[in-house]
C-alpha cells in the first residue's frame, strides 16, 4: 500500500489510536470519538417498533465490537468498518425480533444523505466518488442514489416547458414553430448578454467547465468550494441563461417558480 | 469494469415530463460503468438537453427513444424521436442553447438521422479518469 493510500484510509485519524491498543484509555478515546456515529446510525432505525434507548444500546455494542475487530492494516477506514458493523448489529436486532429491517426513507432524506456522503467522500478520496461508492457509504441502494441525484439537482430544462403546458398550451404548439429565442441564440457568442448577468463566480465556473474543459472536481479545487456546490452552480447557471434567452415571459415564470419554491 | 453486452433501449412518450425517466436510465448506465459522480451528473444534463431539443424540433413525435451502448469504457448515447423529419438539423437546432450545452458536456456530439429520416442526437460520455 502506498503512503497516499495509507493516508486516504486514515482520513478519520483512527489508525494511530489503534496501534496503541489494548491500552484501556485509548480504547475509551476511540469509543468517545465514534459514539456520535453509533448514535446517528441508531436513530436511523427509530420509529420501527423498538425504543431509541434499546437501539442506542445495540449500536454502542456494535461500536465496541467494531473496535475489537478492526485491523488497521487492512486498508479500510475505521469509520467505514464501524458503520458496517454497527448497521449489521442493528439489522440483526430487528431480525431477531421479527421486524422488517428495511429503513424507510423519504426521497428528501436520501437526497440529504447522498449530499452529505458525497461531500465527505469527495474530501476523503480527493476525487469524484462513483455512484457505488456513495451507495455503499450511505447504505442506500444504487438506484436510490440516482433518484436522489435528481432530487438534489432538480435540474430540468424541460420542467420550464412543462409549466407552459399547464397553461393549456401544448408543448408541441409552443415550440413547434420557430421559437424566436432559439434563432437569437447562436452558441455562446449570442448568449453573452445572458452570461454577463450571471455572478462573476458562476461565469468563471462555466468558463472553466465549457471552455477550459476542466472537470467539476478540478473546478472545485480551483475555486475552493465543494464539488456538489459546483454541480449545482453549473445546473443553476445553465438554467438562468436559458431563462434569459427565452425572454421576459420566461423570466416572469422563473420568478413565480422561485416564489413557489419558497412557499 | 462492467460492460453492457446488450444495448439498453427505452421508449417513453414524447413529453417533457417523461424526460426524467431517460435521465435516470442514463445515470444508471453511467453508474454501471463506475463513472464518477460529476460525469454521471453531466450525462443526465446532456440527456435532458437532447430530449428538450428533440421535442422542440419534432412536434409530431409520439415517442422518444433512448439507446445506450458501451464503447471503450464510455457510453454511446443516442436519443431520437419516432417522427421522420426532412429538415434535420435545422439552423435553429444547431444554434440552440441545448446544443451548446450538449457540445460542452459530451464527446463527439452529432445530429444523426435514423430509419426513415427520424431525427436523433448521439454523443459519447467522457471515459472515467483512471484512479490509483
Task: Summarize the helices and strands and which ones pair or pack.
The complex is a heterodimer of chains A (263) and B (132).
Chain A: H1 3-8, H2 15-19, H3 24-44, H4 52-69, H5 78-96, H6 107-125, H7 131-138, H8 142-153, H9 157-166, H10 171-176, H11 180-184, H12 187-190, H13 192-196, H14 200-211, H15 216-223, H16 227-246, H17 248-262
Helix pairs in contact in A: 3-4, 3-5, 4-5, 6-7, 6-8, 7-8, 14-16, 15-16
Chain B: E1 8-13, H1 19-32, H2 37-57, E2 63-71, E3 74-81, H3 91-94, H4 97-105, E4 107-113, E5 119-124
Antiparallel strand pairs in B: 1-2, 2-3, 3-5, 4-5
Structural description of this entry:
The complex is a heterodimer of chains A (263) and B (132). Chain A is elongated, with a radius of gyration of 24 Å. The N and C termini of chain A lie far apart (52 Å). Chain A has helices at residues 3-8, 15-19, 24-44, 52-69, 78-96, 107-125, 131-138, 142-153, 157-166, 171-176, 180-184, 187-190, 192-196, 200-211, 216-223, 227-246, 248-262. Chain A is mainly alpha-helical and 263 residues long. With 132 residues, chain B is of the alpha+beta class. Chain B has a single domain (8-124), classed as Histidine kinase-like ATPase, C-terminal domain (Heat Shock Protein 90). Helices cover 36% and strands 27% of the residues of chain B. Chain B contains 4 helices and 5 strands. Chain B has helices at residues 19-32, 37-57, 91-94, 97-105, and strands at residues 8-13, 63-71, 74-81, 107-113, 119-124. A 5-stranded antiparallel β-sheet of chain B has the order 1-2-3-5-4, covered by helices on one side. In chain B, helix 1 runs antiparallel to helix 2 and helix 2 (37-57) packs antiparallel against helix 4. The longest helix of chain B has 21 residues, at 37-57. Chain B is globular. The relative contact order of chain B is 0.21. The model of chain B has no long low-confidence stretch (mean pLDDT 88). At the A-B interface, helix 7, helix 8, helix 9, helix 10 and helix 12 of A face helix 1, helix 2 and helix 4 of B.
